[in-house]
User: Fold Phage shock protein PspC N-terminal domain-containing protein from Acetobacter thailandicus.
Amino acid sequence: MAGKKLSGARVVQILDDMNGGRSFLANIIGFFCVAAMLGLVEMACRFMLNTQLDLILRILLVVLAGYYFLPFLILWVLRGSKS
Assistant:
């Protein structure tokens, strides 16, 4: 990728591949499912391993939200539609 210029159409194609054709509702459901799994892992670590994951969990939730919502929102702005 270094030294190569990305055209606008190529950027939209990459974002479309990242989004995978998911709708906003599918992104919300996926986000909450993965966030719930992270919550269960945090509870297991807290009670079984006596380890706090507060800092890493916050970072993971921000990255998770970016993965689910940023490509969709950028495509929504560029295309002017939901898909």
Q: What stands out?
A: The CA atoms of residues 46 and 52 lie 6 Å apart. Residues 24-79 form one domain.
